[in-house]
């Protein structure tokens, strides 16, 4: 099975306090810690496990600037044989459809049986996998939390409301977006990263991919972010202040009063 | 702009989802003066009942009844919508696991703009629609603008719009089942496996201590257990704790976990993503502890503490033990 996994380098929202930059044109990016999008690690792990069972190979692809190399190498260190970087100044500012258009071109460079993405990224749009499937005219399933290979079809589970699992059969080739919890992504140590440090990763631009730069990037985007802002909220929480001892004492009183001590 | 607006009515077991009326509000807010059409896809008596229910609120309902539509499979619904929707249509879907499955591909096939997980409306100017979205788990909001001259697919977050009041007169149901004949897909629904019940039923507890990724390491969970024991409370958690297999799925609060209705909810190291808060109902007294003053959980809490769990938890446990 030839598997392509699309990964994204994002500011890690669990590690960072995200602030809006002056004027709202962007968030403050100076001190942000970047990481591979959480969902994508599960997608790469699932691809590697499928290949360990069924044979084949895993290719990790990322789109962005030169910085994405770090992310691609990290995911390769998990056990993906090949990497692919899609870098072109003309790609900047693409909307979801633009990103999917570029990934489609990369996906057509070779015959992939299965294409995986994370279920969503830090912007919560959860869109690129479904768009890529539509552009390729492949069947699609989102929020996948189980994959079993049965010849030319997969028995997949989708996570639905309440945590129930919807089982379906889907024909290959297909695109799946992977939900967290499907597996336990393996740990990547420094040794693993060193092992793939010298593996050559092809870098493709718009011309290499045959992507018409007029169809992607900022100018082609149908959907645009106008600005970032912090919403004006009505009440919000009453914030307790003081030393740890003082805060704890206030909490004890509040919990007592509200029936929080059984 | 002359736009035709359609709302896909989500339903289960013969009843429309709460989203049906929230989507009607969203449609009215974004496209005043346009009469939205409800789409009810399903099979048998369930489909009939939901179409009737939808007609109490929507002036026009298009009904599609076919055996294959008994369970909502996005891979079947997408080609059906492509066939029946007029050019330039705007489609509203819930940002649910069905909306996420259906929406992105539908927008591509329709050649329409895609606006996912919309939480608010900010105006329309000609064919430019401006909406509000959130990014970075709700830490910041963004105004997003889309050119909808070729239509739009919009998924709306649950709870973002107040449910609409049903209209005065009952609407009409147009039976379009024939158009849904012969649908096939390369993804075939098999069955739904219900989530397993856990060792405790957190949905029945009055006092919950909820732990999130901010606890850092599995070993630190003992601090949370000790606090919960001192309080006489039950431990529940956010999703990453279950993904890491530190606690059972039965203890997860949220849209893909349990819906709880406690009196007191202590949120420890939880950022407050909408999928987590979606499982917290009944207006409990929420106390949040988080090291990040910007964490969205503070918007949902009555009382907040900006601080490190590792320092606060042992102290709090000790003081509660003394207070008893
Ligand atoms: C379809 C779908 C369904 C989902 N369903 C659910 C669901 O049912 N339930 C659910 O919970 N999530 C669900 N999620 C995931 C959700 O989007 C969030 O990713 C998740 O809720 C984040 O969990 P968290 O708040 O524990 O972690 P994070 O968002 O990583 O937050 C950790 C917080 O801890 C704080 N922190 C870190 N260290 C400390 C410290 N030492 N002291 C104090 N604070 C600290 C940080 O500031 C941060 O705010 C779902 C996602 C999807 C896509």
TrEMBL record, chain A:
Arranged from A to Z, the UniProt key words for this protein are:
Electron transport, Transport
MF term (GO), any: electron transfer activity
* Gene3D superfamilies in the cross-refs: HUPs
Domain Electron transfer flavoprotein alpha/beta-subunit N-terminal, which positions?
24-213
Q: Which SMART domains match?
A: ETF (SM00893)
Q: Span of the secretion signal?
A: none
The source's domain of life comes to Bacteria
Extract the Pfam families matched here. Answer: ETF
Xref: InterPro entries: ETF_a/b_N, ETF_b, ETF_beta_N, Rossmann-like_a/b/a_fold
Hey, which family's this protein in? Belongs to the ETF beta-subunit/FixA family.
Name of this protein: Electron transfer flavoprotein subunit beta
Q: Which organism is it from?
A: Candidatus Geothrix skivensis
Automatic annotation (TrEMBL), chain B:
Q: What SUPFAM superfamilies is this protein classified in?
A: Adenine nucleotide alpha hydrolases-like, DHS-like NAD/FAD-binding domain
Q: Tell me the GO BP annotations in alphabetical order.
A: fatty acid beta-oxidation using acyl-CoA dehydrogenase
Transport in keyword set: yes
Question: Quick one: which residues bind FAD?
Answer: 213, 238-239, 252-256, 269-276, 290
Question: What sections of the sequence does the record tag as coiled-coil?
Answer: none
Q: Which keywords does this chain's UniProt record carry?
A: Electron transport, FAD, Flavoprotein, Transport
Q: Which cofactor does it need?
A: FAD
Q: Bound how, and how many: what does the cofactor note say?
A: Binds 1 FAD per dimer.
GO MF annotations, alphabetized: electron transfer activity; flavin adenine dinucleotide binding
Q: What is this protein called?
A: Electron transfer flavoprotein subunit alpha/FixB family protein
Which organism does this record belong to?
Candidatus Geothrix skivensis
Specify the taxonomic lineage. Bacteria, Pseudomonadati, Acidobacteriota, Holophagae, Holophagales
């Amino acid at each position: 099975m030839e598997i392509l996994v699309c990964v994204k380098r994002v500011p890690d929202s669990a590690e960072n306090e995200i602030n809006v930059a002056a004027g709202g044109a962007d968030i403050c990016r100076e001190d942000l810690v970047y990481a591979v999008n959480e969902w994508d690690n599960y997608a790469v792990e699932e691809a590697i496990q499928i290949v360990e069972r069924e044979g084949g190979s895993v290719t990790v692809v990322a789109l962005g600037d030169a910085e994405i190399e770090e992310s691609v190498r990290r995911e390769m260190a998990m056990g993906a044989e090949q990497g692919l970087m899609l870098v072109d100044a003309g790609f900047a500012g693409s909307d979801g459809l633009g990103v999917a258009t570029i990934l489609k071109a990369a996906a057509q460079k070779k015959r992939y049986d299965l294409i995986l993405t994370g279920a969503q990224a830090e912007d919560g749009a959860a869109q690129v996998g479904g768009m890529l499937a539509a552009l390729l005219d492949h069947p699609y399933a989102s929020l996948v939390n189980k994959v079993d290979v049965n010849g030319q079809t997969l028995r997949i589970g989708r996570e639905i409301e309440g945590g129930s699992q919807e089982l379906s059969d889907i024909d290959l080739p297909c695109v799946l977006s992977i939900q967290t919890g499907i597996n336990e992504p393996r740990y990547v140590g420094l040794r693993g990263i060193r092992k793939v440090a010298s593996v050559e990763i092809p870098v493709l631009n718009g011309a290499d991919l045959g992507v018409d730069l007029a169809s992607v990037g900022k100018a082609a985007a149908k959907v645009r972010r106008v600005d970032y802002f912090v919403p004006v909220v009505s009440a919000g929480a009453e914030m307790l202040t003081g030393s740890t001892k003082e805060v704890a004492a206030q909490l004890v009183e509040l919990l007592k009063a509200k029936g929080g001590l059984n | 702009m002359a736009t035709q607006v359609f709302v896909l009515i989500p339903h289960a077991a013969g009843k429309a989802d709460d989203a049906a009326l929230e989507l009607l509000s969203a449609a009215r807010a974004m496209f005043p003066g346009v009469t939205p059409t409800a789409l009810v896809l399903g099979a048998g008596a369930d489909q009939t009942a939901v179409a009737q229910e939808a007609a109490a609120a929507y002036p026009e309902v298009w009904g599609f009844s076919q055996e294959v539509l008994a369970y909502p499979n996005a891979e079947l619904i997408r080609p059906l919508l492509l066939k029946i929707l007029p050019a330039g249509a705007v489609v509203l879907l819930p940002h649910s696991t069905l909306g996420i499955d259906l929406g992105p591909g539908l927008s591509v096939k329709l050649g329409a703009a895609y606006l996912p997980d919309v939480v608010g409306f900010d105006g329309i100017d000609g064919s430019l629609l401006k909406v509000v979205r959130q990014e970075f788990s709700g830490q910041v909001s963004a105004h997003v603008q889309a050119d909808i001259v070729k239509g739009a697919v919009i998924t709306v977050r649950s709870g973002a719009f107040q449910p609409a009041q049903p209209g005065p007169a009952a609407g009409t149901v147009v039976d379009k089942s024939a158009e849904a004949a012969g649908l096939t897909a390369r993804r075939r629904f098999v069955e739904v496996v219900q989530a397993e019940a856990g060792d405790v039923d957190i949905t029945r507890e009055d006092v919950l201590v909820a732990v999130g990724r901010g606890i850092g390491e599995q070993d630190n969970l003992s601090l949370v257990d000790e606090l919960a024991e001192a309080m006489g409370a039950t431990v529940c958690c956010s999703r990453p704790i279950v993904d890491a297999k530190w606690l059972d799925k039965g203890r997860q609060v949220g849209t893909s976990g349990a819906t709880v209705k406690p009196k007191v909810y202590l949120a420890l190291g939880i950022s407050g993503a909408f999928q987590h808060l979606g499982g917290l109902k009944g207006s409990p007294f929420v106390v949040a502890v988080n090291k990040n003053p910007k964490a969205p959980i503070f918007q949902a809490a009555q009382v907040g503490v900006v601080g490190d769990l590792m320092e606060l938890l042992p102290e709090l446990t000790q003081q509660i033990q003394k207070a008893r």
